Amino acid sequence: xxxxxxxxxxxxxxxxxxxxxxxxxxxxxxxxxxxxxxxxxxxxxxxxxxxxxxxxxxxxxxxxxxxxxxxxxxxxxxxxxxxxxxxxxxxxxxxxxxxxxxxxxxxxxxxxxxxxxxxxxxxxxxxxxxxxxxxxxxxxxxxxxxxxxxxxxxxxxxxxxx
Length: 162
Prior knowledge:
This protein has 162 residues and is mainly β. The chain has one domain: Immunoglobulin-like, CATH 2.60.40.1080. The protein contains 1 helix and 12 strands, in the order αββββββββββββ. The chain has one helix spanning 2-24, and strands at residues 42-47, 50-56, 59-60, 70-73, 81-86, 92-93, 101-107, 113-116, 126-131, 135-145, 148-152, 156-161. The strands form 2 sheets. Strands 1, 2, 3, 5, 6, 8 and 9 form a 7-stranded antiparallel sheet that branches. It is globular.
């Protein structure tokens, strides 16, 4: 009887340890698909080579003559703007070139402002702003990956005027 009880306890303990080992190692499998994320520390907006707006580590950087907001003309488009991203050192890095990553945005008041993309720029990191009525709103610039946002700015003030 003593031998059977210890055998049963030993087998139970071995099965329990094996179950914990197998369930705990699932996410550590190097062969498992690892989802890629794009998580820059900031961005710059460029107009004809001029880096006029900079956002870095949660702050709008208005130093060096840069703006602390964006301007959009009423019923007209801004010039063609492009985005470059910033790494953790503040150095520019290109936008992701994987088609699963898209440029998206969230506008606080879409009756004041809209984003326009040229037909060949849809989803890419190039855009125009167009004011729909005189006023103020904010815009969050985002990088979306499949069904979620990998990166977003704080709400950036936008002034729409004539």
